[in-house]
Structures are given as C-alpha cells and as structure tokens.
Here is the input.
Amino acid sequence: MRINVVVLPGDGIGPEVTAQALRVLRLAAGAFSHDLACREMDIGAAAIRTHGVALPESTLQACLAADAVLLGAVGDPSCDDLPHVQRPETALLTLRRRLDAFANLRPARTDAALIDATPYRPEMVAGADVLIVRELLGGLYYGEPRGLSAHEGHNTMRYTRDEVARVARVAFAQARQRRGRLTSVDKANVLETSRLWRQTVDDVAASYPDVQLQHMYVDACAMRLAMEPTYFDVILTENLFGDILSDQAAAFAGSIGMLPSAAIGGRVGLYEPVHGSAPDIAGTGRANPCGAIRSAAMLLRHSGGMPREADLIDDAVRAVLEAGIRPPGLGSRGGRAASTSEFGHAVSHALEELIDHQHAYHAV
Here is the structure.
C-alpha cells in the first residue's frame, strides 16, 4: 500500500515532535512493506519568514493532493502584532476548511504507568478513556461577520442542520466501536445554535439504536469531566466547547503533551498533537513527543487503513511508559526523565521489538 503524507513541522516545538513522529511512522509502515512517501512543506510563522504568508499556495495544493497531513504546531510571538488574517493560527483554520476536515477526534486516557502524574487520586482516574468528537469547521471560530474596534468586538456562532448531522454520525459510529455511550454537549438552555444541535443529534440517534445517548450542558460536563472522568465514553460537541473540554481532559492524561488528534471526514485527514507551539522551550529537548507520535498512529488508522500498525505504535508508547521512561515534563513523577529525542528513540526501539515479535508469531 502507498500513502502520500505532507508533513508540516510548523513553529516552535513543532519540528522537534514531528521528527519523532516521523521516525515511528516510517518504521511502522516500512516493517509491513507499505510505501510511505513524505513531503515536507512550510506553514505558520516558518512560512511567513520564507514565503511572506502563513499558508503558501504551494503548501495548500500539496495538502489537497495528499492522502494525509501530519502537522506539528503553529504560532510564534513574533507574529502577535500582525492583522488577524495574516497570523499563523489563521493558516491552520484555513487549511482545516479547505481539507473539509469537519470531525476532530481527540482521545484522552489515563495510562496506568502515568496514573501518579495526574493531579487526581489514582482511584478517580483508573481506566479513564474518553474520546471527544469536536465539530471543527463551524461555530464562533468561523462565524461571519466578525469585528473589532476600540470599543467593541463581536463574533457570530452559526450552525446548519447538515453540519451538525455529519459530525454526529461520526461520533455515533465511534461510540458504536467503543463502549456504546455518547454524551452530546451543548448550551441549549441559552443558545439557539445549541437547540438546533440537540434536535439534530436526536434525529441522527434514531439510526443508532445500539448507542446510548444523553444530552448535557457544557458547564455540567466540565464539572463532571473534572470530578469523574471515568463517567464518559464519547463526548460530542461544537467547536469552541470541544476546544476547551479536550484541553481540560489533559489533566487526567498527565499532560497536554500526551494528547493526539485527528481531523477527518473530508478530502484529506489532518493529524496533529493537541498542544501548541511552546516557543519558550523550543530547541531545549523538553517537548513531549507523545501527542505527535500518537497522532501518527491515528494517521495510519484513519487515513492509511492500517489498524495493526497503529495499534503497534500505541502499544510501543505504552511499553516505554511501563518501563519507567517518562517524556519531558513528566520525568519527576515516578520514572526516568527522557529528552524529546530520547523518548522518541525509546518508542522506536519498543516498536521494533513488537514488530519482530509479530513477524516471528506469523512465521510459526
């Protein structure tokens, strides 16, 4: 099988974590004779410095022609004074829309080896495993008109029934493959968009009678996610709420650096860690590559049709954690601290062992 991947390292720690993800991605694909073609392009502040714009047309066209896109991070303080439409973050919003990647899958779980790295008592998070399905192309982030003056700023939130229905179908399908429970999160007691959201999700639910659906207000969900994360299976919500809740879920994962994401449903899948560019630690070896490595696993699963290879990457990360090797930022919590590259090397080594074991098993 051949898969064409455009790699967008981006800004800050993006190139560092992407390098470790690529190492693992190439190893997993090559071990099973898949043809992985990677093409590196510029985006964000890195593109502004080279091309004068955050999303060059050459980058966009390469992404549209690819099978998948692997992104590091965008954002740089040097661009903070630029107009909104010229900032690195706007390039990412534009890319998501052009790829039509409307369903953002953000898994968060408590790895048993990191249970002491969370702010929770172990019994509160043991077994926590949540998938947040965030609508990615609507709501406040894309609402028009928007405006800012010296005395007023305004944004608009807008959703159509079709936009809600298509992401709801993705969430129900994911719940069907997991534990069969879906929590749809809105603010239907206040917002008209949320009332439309709730009505539409109810309509879609009729096609998934095997999935248990409940509705929950976003404030109640945030409280329960903080107090009882094991309660949830799949959370479906709109763009802004999903952005906030998925960052909140980092608490029971140990760190935001642990979290991967996949933006799927459209022409090309986009895969990126949840964390930002963290320019203050760029180049120091203190960036956690787990989110990027796990995003590479999601790329193989959702765009490459390679669930076996994706499982092996996830298993390799888990094996490294269980061996007491900790990614940057978590080294003082019951394990040996590793740098960005050291952790990536450890995952690669664990993956090689798992691949060898699987080849030997099938050779018997």
Q: What stands out?
A: The CA atoms of residues 121 and 268 lie 40 Å apart. The chain has two domains: 1-106+255-364, 119-253. The domain at 1-106+255-364 is CATH 3.40.718.10 (Isopropylmalate Dehydrogenase). The first helix runs from residue 14 to 31.
